[in-house]
Specification:
By secondary structure, this protein is α/β, with parallel strands linked by helices. Helix content is 46%, strand content 13%. The chain contains 19 helices and 14 strands. Helix 10 links the parallel strand 6 and strand 7.
Length: 453
């Protein structure tokens, strides 16, 4: 059986001899051939070379062509900030000052922005490896795209102007449907709707605002003849069931979600689930044995291997050691042999001592934001932006700091603080917002309350 046929069987909810393997090597692909993130996201020849290296080294059942949730936003007028070791981030929001809905005539065409380059590489990869490997086209989900256009105001809009939010989401849904059509026509087998901000809202808000546009999007992908994936980041545990009700073929989650518990829900709806290898603590900072053992332990913890895809929790960090991803591949493709290799292996604890602030004796409120990385994680970006907006209001009356989970000392800090979900906001050492972006009023109220102590 060809690798892509095994993945197709998983997505058709059929029995398979092993779990499927999909390395979400976006910017990391560039590392394999010596190119920076911005080089492969702007140069089709370099991207094509990098993707071929991913296919050769990691032996995937499926692989994405590009992992950049800013493609659509750039076409629609958002300015981007580029990085050498991460995807770009959105710097400006065209609808931030005025709550309007763009005309359908503004939906990106195949000639807009970087889409001609991306579509060309999709066709080239289809010709190069499409016979053996399932190819993923990743589109920006409606809620995250709406946030790119409107900025943090979208969270207040959900309380103050629900009809506007619904209208903007419908527009973003139409953008997604058009992007899915472009990608399927270019040879993509799976369309992943990637929406990190879904983890930042309640299930009630999901049902009110998200159910209809996502259901419409997945219905369209099915009509186009492709498989679909609902890809979320952060602690989306509370939303797994309502996500299932939008009827995707699969759901992808990261390390913030208990995959074993989530799979019990997705199995109830006969939906495949993928994930959730930790991006930083295991893939970036762990050893090859850590990666192999994590996958072995994960697979051994799941009784029903049907409907299962093993994958990184999100876009792999640029600097993930190549041997670590190879170790994951080995564990998925050759589980029994790998289990014997790591049966006596014990992971070493991080030997880093971090000193926490003296929270009881602070002279002013300290707002600590624990993120994966606000430069690369959309949910983290918008949570950090909410804190920065609060800083503009309170000025020197408060202190703020971001702790990025990409650094070893911050992994140790999270462990010492007992941080369970990312992103989270702590004020004076107390957890205030866990994996949910606060409104301006909510955050300002939480800070003001600390000023009274």
């Amino acid at each position: 059986m060809k690798p892509k046929e095994l993945l197709f069987k998983v997505l058709k909810h059929e029995e398979t001899e092993r779990a499927a393997w999909v390395p979400f090597a976006g910017v990391h692909a560039g590392k394999l051939v010596g190119y920076s993130a911005d080089e492969i996201l702007k140069d089709g020849d370099k991207l094509f070379e990098a993707l071929k290296a991913v296919n050769k080294l990691y032996k995937p059942d499926g692989q994405p062509i590009v992992f950049d949730l800013q493609l659509e936003a750039e076409c629609l007028g958002c300015d981007l900030i580029w990085a050498k070791d991460a995807p770009p981030s959105v710097a400006t929001h065209p609808l931030e000052e005025q709550a309007t809905v763009p005309c359908l005539c503004t939906i990106p065409t195949e000639e807009d922005g970087r889409l001609p380059m991306v579509l060309d590489v999709m066709r080239r990869m289809k010709k190069e490896v499409g016979d053996t490997t399932a190819l993923y086209g990743l589109i920006c989900g409606p809620f995250t795209l709406a946030s790119h256009l409107r900025g943090n105001n979208i969270f207040m809009d959900m309380y103050d102007d629900d009809q506007y939010v619904k209208d903007l989401l419908e527009y973003c849904c139409q953008v997604g449907k058009r992007m899915a059509e472009y990608y399927v026509n270019a040879g993509m087998d799976v369309i992943a709707v990637v929406d990190p901000l879904i983890s930042q809202i309640s299930s009630a808000h999901f049902e009110e605002f998200m159910h209809d546009p996502f259901t419409e999007l997945f219905d369209t992908i099915r009509e186009l003849g492709a498989f679909s994936s609902f890809f979320v980041c952060g602690n989306a545990s509370r939303n797994i069931e309502v996500m299932c009700k939008t009827n995707p073929d699969s759901i992808s989650v990261d390390e913030n979600v208990d995959l074993v518990a989530a799979k019990k829900i997705t199995d109830k709806y006969n939906i495949a689930i993928g994930g959730n290898i930790p991006l930083t603590s295991i893939m970036l900072h762990g050893t090859q044995q850590d990666n192999m053992k994590y996958v072995v332990d994960l697979l051994d913890s799941i009784d029903n291997k049907k409907n299962l895809i093993i994958a990184p929790g999100c876009d792999m960090p640029y600097n993930v050691p190549i041997e670590n991803a190879i170790g994951v591949s080995q564990a998925v493709l050759h589980l029994d042999e790998t289990r014997k290799m790591v049966e006596n292996y014990t992971s070493q604890e991080l030997d880093i001592d971090v000193e926490l602030p003296d929270y009881d004796n602070l002279t002013k409120p300290l707002v600590e934001v624990f993120t994966l990385d606000s430069a690369t994680c959309a949910a983290c970006t918008y949570m950090m932006r909410a804190v920065l907006e609060a800083k503009e209001k309170f000025g020197d009356a408060i202190d703020i700091v971001e702790y990025k989970f990409t650094l070893k000392e911050n992994i140790a800090r999270c462990k010492k603080m007992g941080v369970k979900n990312l992103p989270s906001i702590y004020i004076n050492g107390q957890l205030k917002f866990s994996s949910i972006i606060p409104s301006r009023e909510e955050l300002e109220k939480a800070i003001t309350e600390q000023m009274k102590h």
